[in-house]
What we know:
Elements: H1 2-13, E1 20-24, H2 26-30, H3 37-54, H4 60-74, H5 79-82, H6 90-116, H7 124-129, E2 139-143, H8 149-157, E3 160-162, E4 165-167, E5 171-173, E6 183-189, E7 192-197, E8 201-205, E9 213-216, E10 220-223, H9 241-245, H10 250-263, E11 266-270, H11 277-283, H12 286-289, E12 293-296, H13 302-310, E13 314-320, E14 323-330, E15 333-340, H14 347-354
Parallel strand pairs: 1-2, 1-11, 2-8, 3-8, 11-12, 12-13
Antiparallel strand pairs: 4-5, 5-10, 6-7, 9-10, 13-14, 14-15
Helix pairs in contact: 3-4, 3-6, 6-8, 10-11
Amino acid sequence: MGENIDRVYKYIQQFGEEQTLITIGSGISAGEGIPGMGKLADHLLTDVEQKLNALEGLKSTDWESWEVVKSSLQKGIDLERALSIQAISSVVENLIIQSTYSLIAAKDYEIFSQVFERNRQLNLHRILKQYIPLNSTPLTIITTNYDCLIEYTCLSLGINVDNLFYGGYFRKFNPRLQDEQHQKLKRIKRNSVAAVKDNNYILLLKPHGSIDWFSKPGEGTYLFQHSISEIPDIITPGKNKWINERREPFNTVYAKCNQAIDEAGHYLFLGYGYNDEDLQDHYDHEKNRIKPKLIVTMQSNTKLDQLFDKSPDCMLIVQHGAGSNIRWKQKGKLVCDYDVKEPIWEINSLAKCVFQQN
Length: 358
């Protein structure tokens, strides 16, 4: 077993190299106490109902679309499927966004305060410490999470984050100015300076939006540390998701995600359930399917199992009792399927055991 685990660790270590694309899902946020889909569903049942009852001038279609979601959730249908049964009205969609924001933002702010006061180190800290950009090569992270835990981790590590917004205190979504904000002046001669590009940053792509994104009608999307409304620019699951992804800033962010997926040499999935069809479609392209993948999550699901089965070079690490189960394929053949005592499905333990990060 000792020799085998050494081989496993050696394989994992290649995902600490440059050209690795990291995709982070809700499992990482849940590990920090950010409410997941189950708690959000319970919250929506109460909060959206109260908000609807307080509004005047509602149309029958508003009540009808909410009743479909409500009855589905009460039957135990998961939130994503409940929102996908039929398209919901814009009124109900905005109320769901408001309720989602109120639930997640409260916990997010609590975590930010703890990190800022150095009373808390997030689980991502150790693993991202391994990826502090070196040799002027930026690291790209894709996350489908609404919260800002990645940003707070980078703050604690002193890593700059580029999220395609440009400016000072008020930052506007403007990817065309991406290169400008990473330029610095370098003295060439005594009386001569030139602008050179500084790539020591993390490019953070959030295709579903973020709780600190807010749109101003006719002026675009801004990033504010303090909310200016209770309706941030986030995309909820459901029938309306496809339409919302085609508007800005989401259309541009998805294009950047696809570019990053194509250009990466390795894929590292952390707490990601592989449930976004647009991203999946790109990961599943033949040229990308053959790239090495490391999937680290609490438990697998049908989609992750399918990804493992069709990937010729892939390792899947999940929880098994107090330790972990490791399935590993190379050149299309199963190399191992065994259990280890180390809980390396937890990213804290993974960073400590494999990358020796303190």
